[in-house]
Amino acid sequence: MVKSSALTRRPTLFDAALAIILTLVALITVYPVVYIIAVSFSDTASIVQNKVFLWPQGFNLDAYREILQNPKIPRAYGNTILYTGVGTAINLFMTAVAAYPLSRPGFFGRKFFLIAIVLTLFLNGGIIPTYLIVQKLQLIDTMWAIVLPNAIWTMELLILKSFYESMSGSLRESALIDGASEYRILFQIMIPLSKPALASIGLFYFMGHWNSFFLPMIYLNDAKLYPCRWCCVIC
Fold first, then answer.
1. Cα dihedral 87/88/90/96 (nearest 10)
2. How far apart are CA 150 and CA 86, in angstroms?
3. Contact indicator for 233, 217 with CB cutoff of 8 Å
4. What is the pLDDT of residues 79-99, one digit of tens each?
5. Distance between CA 126 and CA 204 in Å, rounded?
6. Which of 129, 163, 186, 225 is close enough to 125 for a disulfide, judged by CB 3.0 to 4.6 Å?
7. How far apart are CA 138 and CA 148, in angstroms?
8. Predicted structure pTM score
């Protein structure tokens, strides 16, 4: 049996250097996580004296006891999970629907809408006008103030639009010949075939909502609605 050249190729100096670099990057990435875990199990004196490195010193569970006894923390994490789940679902649905007509060459006003959308990458209405709109819509101190203003991100919309354009046009033509409507083409053909692209942009949407700090600070006044990041700051 003839073995492939990829399996029989001897490691080169480049391979060794690449392995060393990737190992260093991995260590740099993992170290803060390991350090934080070690600190969380260490006593205050050891932390202040800078004795903690990769292993807990003066083992105790005071930090975890404080978190579990504080009712604000579990509620804040519940809010974060809710905002992230609902927000990501709205993001994916709105982006999938908006990208479809923009990917169709015959869509009326396509060029105008694309230019207007791309301009939002460089220009925006600003914090105060956006706040006034949210206030007029009576969304202050609600979950919708967090998830609706960012229902569609421009870059993710353009990515999904390009993915739609890369799909074979014969699929849509065949569906039209069979009598399918544009809604059926979108929801039964385009979206199911776009799962890889939706998964990619969904990850960005998820991280954006999970790490959101600025929007809750502006739109939420009720402490019971704070997500985990904003709650941890005020606590």
1. 160
2. 12
3. no
4. 889 999 999 999 999 999 999
5. 23
6. 129
7. 12
8. 0.75
